[in-house]
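worker-03 picked up job from queue 'complexes'. Input manifest follows; two sequence lines, order preserved.
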Amino acid sequence: MTLFRLRLATRNRAFLVFGIIIPLAFLFLFAAVFAKKGGPAVAYVLASILAMSVMGSFWGLSQQLVIFREQGILRRFRLAPLGAGTMLVSGIISNLILMMPGLAAEIAAARWVLHMNSWGNLLSVFVLSGLGAVTFATLGLVVASVANSMMETQVINQLLWLSFLLLSGVAIPLPALPVWLQKVALYLPATYLVTGLERALIQFASLQHLGAEIASLAGSAILAFFVCQQIFRWEPEEKMPRQAKLWVAAALIPFLLLGAWETKQGGRLSEARSIFQNTFSERPAQKAPVAPPAERP
Amino acid sequence: MSEAIVQVRDLKKSYGDVEALRGVSFEIAEGEVFGLLGPNGAGKTTTIEILEGMRLADGGTATVSGLDPQKGGPQFKRTVGAVLQSTSLPDKLRVEEALSLFAQLYGSRADRISLLRRFGLEEKRHAFYGKLSGGQKQRLAIALALVHQPRVVFLDEPTAGLDPQVRREIYDIIEELRKDKKTVLLTTHYIEEAERLCDRVAIVDHGKVIALGTPRELKQRSAGTTRIEVTLAKPIETTELRALEGVADCRALDGRTVLHSTRPPQTIVALVKHLEAHGNELQSLEIATPSLEDVFIEMTGRRLRE
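worker-03 finished. Artifact:
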């Protein structure tokens, strides 16, 4: 099934455009505006662009699932000895594989063309990106399982996508947002992806120092996948049972708990401010209490 | 009859207030081609989808090869193959890839080349699904249903929407399945299809089986009669025509008058004389040997296809 999904994706020209060309274009645009001098500012911009690429998983799989359901393709697969889990996993794995060349191209462009001053911790970058791709893919599949039509899917996706884009540090640096919005950002999964990538690229944070980010993304992915399996629909006429809507609400619980915990701790926002100021300020900023310094090459 | 491989007992299914199935029962022996014939909305697709495991019945039982379609799991799915009434595959999937994919899903080592050849798709093996004609898509659908060599094959309106030439190609394929002693359940609203392909036919209307038997047995209900369809210049009471020589039955249907006669030449002569005597005129006349449609008309007072 995974090979089948990979074949379909690579035969779609939109994959090349949305998976590689557009993210690279955004990288060069953002770098031209915010990182003219190169160096660590490029790494900061790269973190946002990588997060945006990873979050693209949210759109791709959810739309494909709805199209398959509306066109009767899922009906045909339902006759085969194939469970909902296999359908979902094949989509998530194929999405992960397809994402990697784009991410590699963005990192290479940042280093060789835009003169990013180092590779950062590449292992942490790829693990976070991979985990982020799985998380956002499963979140997109939850939306696709809940929505009854392509139009509904696009409306829900737009609302969630814009909130991720604007409030998580992707389009607008977190420290530049009003304080109350920064606190709202702590409840969004994309925030942990962005701040984790910033730490991996700029502070060379190793996997052991990204425990909170990895745990939040992994936990969200596992819960979202479980919810998807419960509410998966093979046919458009199938109605979602009432208890399935409770499952969807349950998928939000980890974000609420994590957001509340981070709000109380306060460490993430102050670290994000520190990274931002160190990257863009000409004078060194005051150091906020942060996690132990990571390894440098 | 050998032990039935498909058993349906008192099947019931409702969609809201609409009773789609009101107690359907029948059995299919292994190696038999069995038809469900009826108009749109009769309950044919609902019946076959319950047997495929795609729908849950509200009452009654259905088993295929001793397995419950809902609980049979992967073993059930490997036992049956199906061509759905409305389904599709991704446009950018090649024909050969589709066969490989489904063969893998079923764990089958079927020879893809011979399947492609058998269904006339060898030249199209590298073509994208989206570029196939309607007939080619349907042939591929049948090939996919057979890729794992199932014991029972379900075909839901396999020739619906296809032109007559393509329909005959599909008939040839189904006749080959019959020669291979495959058990086939076929739903259709085409009388010719049921008469030509099926060993036995169940005529379904409004969620019930109203007649069941071989096509010959069913047509013998109108045995010894010939159908005469006439269009008249002025409407006429059917009771007047029932009294004519040789007339066994007379009904008005869709603006035409349908007579069943045991002595067609005498009936026609008597009809012309009667019309002349009452200032009426014969505008058109068709004569046909009894068909399954006549059985349906006899039992429901309506045509099979309205």
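worker-03 released lock.
Residues 222 and 241 of chain A are 21 Å apart (CA to CA).
The two ends of chain A are 40 Å apart (CA to CA).
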